[in-house]
Amino acid sequence: MKEQINKVFEGREEIPLFYIESGSRLWNIASPDSDYDVRGIHLQSIAQKYDFQKHRDVIEVMDGDFDFVSYDLDKFLNLLLDGNATILEWFRSDIIYFSDIKNFEAYQLKILDHVNFKSIFYHYISLAKKHYQLLESGKKFTYKVIFYCIRALLSADLAAQNRLAELDIEKLFSQFDEENEVIVLAKSCLDQKRAGNEKQYVEEEKREHILRVLNVYRERLLLNLPNENHNKEKLRELLRAFAFEVKSSFYHKAEIA
Question: Which domains occur in the chain, in start order?
Fold first, then answer.
C-alpha cells in the first residue's frame, strides 16, 4: 500500500504526510468486494505555499479497488476544528499505511481530549436520517443501508454521552450494556454484508417493523442531546501547535536543500 501511495505523488509537488484506512476495513465490516479507502493529509510544496495563486487542496485517485483521498494539512485541521466526525474517524484510525509526522500520537491524544461531541452527535444523526430516508423511499431497502443507518445511530448515542464510538464494529457493540433490538438487527445485517449479500433487498413484510425500530431509536436520541462543554479555543491552540511543528519541520528541510 505504501508503494501505491508513493506512486500517487510521483510527479507531484505536494508532500505526503499521513495515510490510513477508513470505511469498511477500518470498521471490520469489509465484504469480499470492498475497496481500500485510503485517506490522509499532505503538505503543499514551498513553491505552492508562496505562489500568488491558490492551489487545489484535495488529491483524489480511483484505481481499481484503490480509493485515495488526500486533504491539504490546513483543510484537514480546519475540518477537525469544526468537529467534522468523518475527519475525526480518519484521525483516529489504527490502520496506518504511511506516516511521516513526528510526535503524531502525542498530539492525537491531546486533540481527542477536546472534541466537540455536539457536532459529532448532529453529524451522525444527520447521516442516520439520510439512510433512513433511503429506506423509507423503498429505493434502497438493503442490508447495507440498514446497517449504515444503525452504525450512525449508535455513534450518535455515544456522542450524546460524551463518548467516542469505537471504530471496530464489535468494540462498538460492546460499548452498550444490553444487546437491544437495534444491535440485534445490526448484527443480522452485518452477517449479510460479510456474506456478500449487502445489496440484497429486504423482504417487504419485514420493512415496516425495521423502519419503526429505527425511527423510535432516533426520536429517543433527539431527546438526549450532549452537553455543551467544548473548549474550541483550546482545540484551536492545539491544532495551531500541531500545524506549526509539521510545517516548520518540512519547510525547513526544503529550504536547506
Answer: 2-114+230-256 (3.30.460), 117-221 (1.20.120)
